[in-house]
TrEMBL record:
Coiled coil: none
Lineage: Eukaryota, Viridiplantae, Streptophyta, Embryophyta, Tracheophyta
Gene Ontology MF term list: metallopeptidase activity; translation initiation factor activity; translation initiation factor binding
Protein name per UniProt: MPN domain-containing protein
Keyword Cytoplasm tagged: yes
Length: 271
């Protein structure tokens, strides 16, 4: 495939609430980062296939991925199509509900080569998603973006491929968020221990409690207008807390801290 025959245009318009949404599971980002770290020395970027499904509301649910070997130069792109199809068959034996929903590449934005690769995936699935993960941290963090494409034509002549950016949903649970925060940081001295992770979580919890306490005080003193939905949320949250005596709560925390300490020591001794 020759990149010189294609032009890629990238747009970032204001999108309405009814626009297409790409929901990306953390496993996909971890897989992409791992493939980038293990890439051949001469490779500038890694590309691969995205697997998932389209939900009834139109959201593209991206749950898995795998890398596809390729060679890329300034004017040509070559994909290992046989490898791609063999990997797809292997994945679908494990989870037959996962289908191709698009493809990914490492880097920031799209290129002429991206238009060629997107053309291939457009033959694999209608309206594929193109996901980009900036593993080079050019904006200070790992920027993640998603695009769909529209062909711009004049009569029977195709002029360019327009890549339209769409929203990305990266909602994740607390444990996944901790790992993702580490990944998107350009420099990490070491992975935090269980005790350090617990300390960071407690600091975030105390900060949130301070915010709630300040909000309640401001409402009581008339500095902030009351909001019944927030009041109900705070009431339901407080009601869901287990009723423990201070002594029982202290024992529970201390027992868990000792367990974390034993795990850390065990890991140190095994090293």
């Amino acid at each position: 495939m020759a990149a010189s025959e294609h032009t890629a245009l990238q747009f970032t318009p204001v999108l309405s609430s009814s626009s297409l949404l790409a929901k990306v599971h953390p496993l996909v980002i971890f897989n992409i980062c791992d493939c980038y770290v293990r890439r051949p020395d001469q490779a500038e970027r890694v590309i691969g296939t995205l697997l998932g499904s389209v939900l009834p509301d139109g959201t593209v649910d991206i749950r898995n991925s795998y890398a596809v070997p390729h060679n890329e130069s300034s004017d040509q792109v070559a994909l290992d199509i046989d490898y791609h199809h063999n990997m797809l068959l292997s994945h679908q034996k494990v989870n037959p509900k996962e289908a191709i929903v698009g493809w990914y590449s490492t880097g920031l934005g799209v290129t002429g080569g991206s238009a060629l690769i997107h053309e291939f995936y457009s033959r694999e699935v209608p309206n594929p998603i193109h996901l980009t993960v900036d593993t080079g941290f050019r904006n200070g963090e790992g920027t993640i973006k998603a695009y769909v494409s529209v062909n711009l034509s004049l009569g029977d002549c195709q002029l360019a491929v327009q890549f339209q950016e769409i929203p990305v949903d990266l909602r994740m649970v607390e444990a996944e968020q901790v790992g993702f925060d580490i990944l998107k940081t350009p420099m990490v001295d070491k992975i935090p221990s269980d005790l350090e992770g617990m300390e960071a979580s407690m600091q975030r919890l105390l900060a949130l409690i301070d915010d709630v306490h300040k909000y309640v005080d401001d409402v009581v003193e008339g500095h902030t207008a009351s909001d019944s939905s927030i009041g109900r949320f705070i009431s339901e949250t407080v009601a869901s807390l287990p009723k423990l005596l201070p002594s029982a709560f202290d024992k529970l925390v201390n027992d868990n801290l000792q367990l974390c300490g034993y795990l850390d020591i065990g890991g140190f001794l095994s090293d």
